[in-house]
Design goal:
- Chain A: This is Complex component RRP41.
- Chain A: It is found in: Cytoplasm; Nucleus.
- Chain A: It holds the Pfam family RNase_PH.
- The complex is a heterodimer.
- Chain A is of the alpha+beta class.
- Chain A is built from six helices and ten strands.
- Chain A has a single domain, classed as GHMP Kinase, N-terminal domain (Ribosomal Protein S5, domain 2), CATH 3.30.230.70.
- The longest helix of chain A has 28 residues.
- Chain A is globular, with a radius of gyration of 21 Å.
- The two termini of chain A are 24 Å apart.
- By secondary structure, chain B is of the alpha+beta class.
- Chain B is 24% helix and 28% strand.
- Chain B is built from six helices and 14 strands.
- Chain B is elongated.
- The chains are: A alpha+beta, B alpha+beta.
- The interface between A and B is large, with 47 and 48 residues.
Chain lengths: 299, 330
Amino acid sequence: MPRNYASLSNCYKPLPFNLAQSQQASTTTTVSKKSKRDRASHELRVLRLELGITSATGSALVELGHTKVLCQVIGPTTTSTTTVNMEEGTLECQVQYVPNVGYPITSLVGAAASGLALSSETQQHAQQPTSGRINTQIGGVEKELANQVLSSLAAAVPLKAYPKNVIQLQLTILQDDGSVMSACTIAASLALVNASIEVYDMVTSATVAVMNDEDTTQPKLLADPTYSELEQADAVVTLSLLANWKEVTLWNQSGRLSSTLANEAISLCRDGCRSMHKFMRNALLDFEEPGGQKTTTQT
Amino acid sequence: MASGLALQLSESEKLYLIDGCADNCRLDGREREDIRQYTIVTSSETTSADGHPPLMLSNGSARLILSSSGSTSTHILCSVKVEVMTPSQSQPNQGNLIVHVEDSLAANSSLSRKKNEEDRNRVQSIISELLATNLIDLESLCIIPYHYAFNVSVDVEILSGTAGSIIDACCHAIRAALQNTLLPKVVPSSIVNDAGTSMDPVGSSSSDLMLESDLSLAQTPSGIDNAAVVVTVTVCHRALTNSYLLLLDASLEEEACCFCQVHVAVDAREGTEPTICALRKTGNGSLPWELLPEITALAVKAVPMAKSSFRVAGSSRNNASLLQTQLDIQ
C-alpha cells in the first residue's frame, strides 16, 4: 500500500508570469542579459526525490528547484494491441504537461509569428496564438521529450528479460522551470527501480547552459539552469549517463560551441550526473516500503 | 531507423556486416570514412531558355539523388516557399524559417501506420532542431521591423530512402534549395500621415509593400553559404572485440544493425575553426565516454568531404531522363 499523500515543496504559488517584463526586454535590445544567480555556477538546485507516492507499480517525484516531474511505471503488462514483440519487451513512454500550468506559457504568448491580418482591427488579435496552436506546439514538445527519455533509458533495461511484455512510463510535468529533460530521465529511472523492474544501471542526467558573459571574455558554464537562464543561454548541452558503467545514453547540444567549450560543458554535465547519482542512491536506500521493509538495491 | 523502411537483418548478417566494417571494407566496398557521391539537380546551369528548376512554382527547389550499388537510391525533393508575414513580438527584427519533412511513400508500405508516423516525426524533429536556426541569417529576412518579415518555409519530400543516410541527404537538399532561392525584392511604399506626425499603424497588406518585378533584383537569402552541414556518424559495436566502429554515410543495412547514431551539425566557414552548432544522438545504444571526442572529431573532419562530394546535373534533357529512371511507380 503506498503512502496516500505526497508533499510538494513550494506548491503554494505558481511561477510568476511576467509578460510586461518580457515585452519590455524585447523592445530595448541593449538591456544586458545578466540575471542574478543565487548559487554557484556548478551547483545544482534544491533537489527533492520521492518514491512510491501513487498506486502505480512504481512511481517517483523529482523536484529540481521549481521543475517538478512525476513518473509512473505501469508494467510489465501484456498488451492486446497490434504487434507483439516475441523476442524482447517493449518500453513505451508518454509525456504530458499539466494543461495550462506545466508549460511555461511566457515562451509562447507573444512569441509566435503570424500571417498577415486581413484588416487592421484584427491585427492585434492576430498576434496572440490561439489555444489550439499552443496545444499543437506543446504536443510536439511532449512527443520529442518522450522519444528522448525512451532512448536514454532503453540501454538500461534488459528488454530480453521481458518478452511479449510492455513497460509503460507515464511522465507528468507539473511545472517546467528548465532542465526538464534531466528531471524526466531521473524520475523515470527512479520509478523503474521502484517498480522492481530489472535494470542494468541507473540513468542520471544533467543539463548545462553556456552563456557568454559581457564582463569577462570567458563564457560562463551554468549547471542545472532555470528556464530564464536557458532562454538567455547561447548553447545548451544535455547529457544522460549510465551511472556506474559511465556510458552516455543521451547527448544533445543546441547552439554553437567551440570544441574546447563543448568538452568543458560535457565534463560539467558528467560531474552533475555524478552528484545526482549519489542523491538518487540515497533516496533509494532510504526509501521504506509501508510494510516496514527496506528495498534491497545494488546500486 | 530513420524511415519506415527499416530493415530486419538476421544476426549472422549483422555479424558479417560489422566484421566487414572492422576490416575497413563495407558492404559496397567503401572504407569506413568514405562518403558516396550524390547528384543535385537544381535549375539549369546553362543560360538557354529550356533550363528550369525542378519545381517551377516554388521560390527555390532542389532534387538530390544518391544511388548506391544495386538498385537502391535515396531521392529527396526540397521546395522553398517564401511569404510575407508579421514577425513575432519577442523577435521583431527577424524572419522565420520552418523546416518540414514528409515521407509519403513510406506511408503506403506494409508497416503499421503508427510506427510510420513516429519515424516520420523523428526525422522531422531531428532535422528541424538541428538546422532551423543554423541555415540563414534570420535578421536579413526582415522587411519592416515589427510589421513585415519573410517567412521561409522549407518542405522536404522523401521520395525514396532505400540507400540510407536520409538525414544527411535532406540537409544537403535543403542547402542546395536555399542556395537557389530568390527572395523577391520588396519595397515599403511610403506611408506618411497628412499631418506629418507619426506613422499610422500599418494596415492591411495590399497598399504597404511594393514588389519589384525586375527579377535581377531578387537576392538569395544571406548567410546560406555558411550554413551548417549535418554529418551523421553511425556507431557499430563489435561484440567479439568489444570495440566500436565509426562509419560515415551509412547505408540502410548499416543503419539497421547500428548501435546508435550521432547527428552533428557543423558550421565550417572559411578561415575559422569549425564549430558544432547542434548535436543529437539517436538510437538505443550507450556510448563509452572516450568515444565522444572521437565522434565529434570525425564529424568535423568529414565536413569538407561532404560539401564537395556532389555533382550538379543541369540541363532539362537530363531532367527528363532522371525522371524516367528514378521515379518508377512500383
